[in-house]
Amino acid sequence: QVQLQESGPGLVKPSQTLSLTCTVSGDSITTNPYYWSWIRQPPGKGMEWIGYIAWSGSTYYSPSLKSRTSISRDTSKNQFTLQLSSVTPEDTAVYHCARVRISQTAIMRSYPTKTTGDWGQGTQVTVSS
C-alpha cells in the first residue's frame, strides 16, 4: 500500500521560496500510469490543485500558480518536491501530496478531494514575517 509523507518548514517569510518534499513508500514514483500531485487548502477555503509530475517526469501546473511553481523529483530517494516562489500570506495553507491515476487527473485539476487517489496527511505552512 502506497504511503505519502509531506515534510518541510512550517513557517516561511514573505517573498521567500516555500519548499516541500513528499516521500513515497510502497510504490515507485516512476510507475506508469501515476501522477504525483501537490494540492493545498487555505484556511476556510476549498482544496486547490497546484500541479503534478508524471511517472515520466513531465510536469503540469495550475495556470494561476504556474509562474511561481516548480515540481521536481529525486528518483533515487523516491521523493518529489514542490517549490513555490515569492510567497505571500495568501499562500498560507495545509499542503498535501497525492498519487492519482491518469484517469483521475482531470478531476484532480478541477475538484481535488481526498476521495480521489492516495493522499499524505498534509503539512501546515504559514507565511508570515
Account of the protein in words:
This protein has one helix spanning 105-110, and strands at residues 3-7, 11-12, 18-25, 34-41, 48-54, 59-61, 69-74, 79-84, 93-101, 118-119, 123-127. The protein contains one helix and eleven strands, in the order βββββββββαββ. The mean pLDDT is 96. It has 129 residues and is mainly beta. The protein is globular and about 40 Å long. 5% of the residues lie in helices and 47% in strands. A hairpin with a 4-residue loop joins strand 7 and strand 8 (79-84). Strands 2, 4, 5, 6, 9, 10 and 11 form a seven-stranded mixed beta sheet that branches.
Taken from the alpha-carbon principal axes, the silhouette is globular
Provide the β-strand percentage band.
Answer: over 45%
Described by its quaternary structure, the protein is: single chain
Structural class: mainly beta
Q: What is the helix content?
A: under 10%
What is the average per-residue confidence, as pLDDT, rounded to a whole number? 96
Tally of contiguous helical segments: 1
**Poorly predicted tracts of residues:** none
Major sheet details: 7 strands, mixed
The tally of strands reads: 11
Radius of gyration: 13 Å
Order of SSEs, N→C?
EEEEEEEEEHEE
- Distance, first to last CA: 39 Å
Which properties best describe this structure?
129 residues; mainly beta; 5% helix; 47% strand
